[in-house]
Write a structure and sequence with these properties.
The complex is a heterodimer of chains A (344) and B (306).
Chain A (H helix, E strand, L loop, with lengths): L2 H16 L6 E8 L5 H11 L1 E8 L2 H10 L6 E2 L6 H6 L19 H4 L11 E13 L11 H4 L9 E2 L4 H11 L9 H14 L3 E3 L4 H7 L4 E5 H10 L3 E4 L5 E10 L6 H10 L3 H11 L14 H4 L14 E3 L5 H15 L1
Parallel strand pairs in A: 1-2, 1-3, 5-6, 5-7, 9-10
Antiparallel strand pairs in A: 3-9, 4-7, 4-8, 4-9
Chain B lengths: L3 H41 L3 E2 L5 E2 L5 H7 E3 L6 E3 L1 H33 L3 H12 L6 H12 L4 H8 L13 H25 L3 H9 L4 H29 L3 H7 L6 H9 L5 H28 L6
Antiparallel strand pairs in B: 1-2, 3-4
Helix pairs in contact in B: 2-12, 3-7, 3-9, 5-7, 5-10, 7-9, 7-10, 8-9, 9-12, 11-12
Classes of the chains: A alpha/beta (344), B mainly alpha (306).
Chain lengths: 344, 306
Amino acid sequence: MNWKTAATAMALTLLASTSVVRADGVLNIYNWGNYTSPDVIKKFEQKYNVKVTITDYDSNDTALAKVRQGGTGFDIAVPSQTFVPIWIKEGLLLETDPGKMENFKNVAPEWANPEFDPGRKYSVPWAWGTIGVVVNTDAYKGPADSWGIIFNTPDELKGKVNVVPEMNDVIFAAIKYLGGQQCTDDKAILKKVRDTLVAAKPNWIAMEYNTIEKMGAGDFKATSDWNGSALRQRLANPAIHYNYPKEGFGLWSDNVVVLKEAKNVENAKLFQNFIMDPENAAGLSAFHRYANAITGSEKYMPADMKDAPEVVIPADAKPRGEFQRMCAPEVQDIYTKIWTELQK
Amino acid sequence: MATAEQVAKEAEQSDVRARWLLSAPALLIILVAATGPLLIVLVYSFLTPGPYGDVKWQFSPEAWVSVFMERDIFDDTLSLAAAHITIFWRSIKLAVVTTIATLALGFPTAYFMATRSEKTRDIWLFLITIPFWTNLLIRTFAVLQIIRNEGIINTLLIKAGIVSAPVQILFTDTAILVGMAYVYLPLMVLPIYASMEKLDFRLVEAGYDLYANRFQVLRRIIFPLVKPGVIAGSILVFIPAIGAYVTPVVLGGGKNMMLSNLIELQFGQGRNWPLGSALSIAVMIIVMVALLAYVRNAGRTEVRHG
């Protein structure tokens, strides 16, 4: 037997042993940047003998606009819960019925029947998290569990606070801080929101996304941020703490959906099922540093995430969390105007 | 039998046809790739925004109205769009200041280069073009590393004992200007150098012979002769500067919007594509008017020499 036949034989045995379920082909994923664990993808590729491609987007609006134009070639996207109903309503999604998939039994009960996708007809949980306040305790020792850090900045933090420029998140937080309900069309509250934001801005140093690096380097001493980002900051500098504001904080989740125009539907379904497996879900979490919604994934989670206060919401803070919704277009229009006035 | 005149005429006609055919690909590209998208933007600016981005095919002048006027969020009165005007003005100011700063730095640099011996000139020219090898974003982040609180400048200042706490440069207007001037400097230097290289320095000597002082020589001889380069450089800097996006966001901290950020907001979180389109066209008109005014003004005072 010469080396060629040997290699072929080896390759064939390898193929036979790995492809338990044969699903040759490709899977094109459209997801947020720096969000997809290469290890989990490699595992999926090997298990099903599928070539996976990943394309990045940077905002829900970009993803929606692009997919709506059609002809993208993507099979899977990962919109946030505020956007899932729009994707459904616009007829962009394929009803894959994940609720009936084999691994669906692993989905935690509170995530099995969410408001944005009743009965999980389209989507599978990818990650979820919170939006709160991050403070470097070397710079500020006082109580920090309040949006007041951002909107009524204490003296020690003046000129050192960053705000992540997500319009909906910032206005949600300001409404909570002023005691209102999200998506309110109450002009009295919205006016207060505008005045509070405009008055708070001189105390901010920047409105940037790049918080992990800048909190680490000390350019910022406090920021509004997502919990996973806060976890990465604390791992770099133990003085950095994540706080769940007492006025209430936003909850979000990103969800894996299959596009109606998908060419590789079977692979896409396999992928939806694959990531509901506890070990794979934990693998995703280990990379993006957010919680997943899969029971049983705890035992595969990296040690530094198991009890991390950023990932596991403390019992007393839990009731204050609230899912952010998409507001009505008229309300959204007012948000944009407030936002423009804030940044003018 | 064809007369000589006919033959000549036919030859001319076929010549014209060949020219048109040869230039057709270029014309097609200009029409389709440049004018086409612009037309779409123009059409979109007269439509109604869709509820979640995109447009509804329904005529509406609302976008154009809101470029200049705004309805108060709370009492519905119509007034001048103060926010938009502030943002327009900030971008225009930044572009003008950047042009002046790059001119102030670029003119002496070009003069220095042009007065070197021919061999060393190429080295200087090469050095000026090196930044072009690197992406704009990376160059901007390099500036950030230098001026940030724990960056090179502040570390040196503190080590030297000049200041005790870091000087806040990052996230200020100074930071934006430093970044813009650095990024756009080559675009100013190169055209001025091209003009300067052709300058006949015997004219400068003649000026001195006629008892002109240095300033007079610069103002009356050198500057008028390299003026085309100065104009070209100013245009090359001014146009991209007015649409600058990355540099103000990275170095200014994104707290104060520039024109380009305002436009981006409409296509992203703002979900008002018609307004975004109208704003884009408004910017184009402003740039065009500014350029026409500038070129006409600059061209008026022609200097004769030779």
